[in-house]
Amino acid sequence: MDRTSNGFYEDFTPGDIYRHARGKTIMEYDNVATTLQVMNTAAEHFNEHKMQSSSAIFPQRVTFGGVTIATVIGLTMQDTAENAIRELRMDKIRLKAPVFHGDTLYAYSKVLDKQDSDTESLTSGVIHFEHYGINQNNVIVFQAERWVLVKKRLA
Do residues 108 and 129 make contact, with C-beta atoms less than 8 angstroms apart? Predict the structure, then answer.
């Protein structure tokens, strides 16, 4: 997609793949603040001492999956939601590898399908995306499908 197009319905073509421009390094604050804010009590997200001194799978804190999901989807927004009317759903969410403090995430999107909206077909349509998040080592850490109602370019 031409980044100057602002992502109207007409700008998306099934089969297109986008590498989104920005990356985001996951900081301790991103993980710990969000984990505690949503009252997630799993020590694996905020207790470094426990992770280092136990027989845990990982020898350090692992980032809460909600942070990974929000970060990757956030990285896609400039290209996939500039003209979004509303988010319709997200499905087939997979957290495929752990994310740790200091990992940098990047996002890719593939347009799987597009359809005129049932109720607003003159002004909008539904774009069906598949999103991937990878870390700095090109390991896929996140995958999901997302449907967005997007404005059409009005003549």
Answer: no
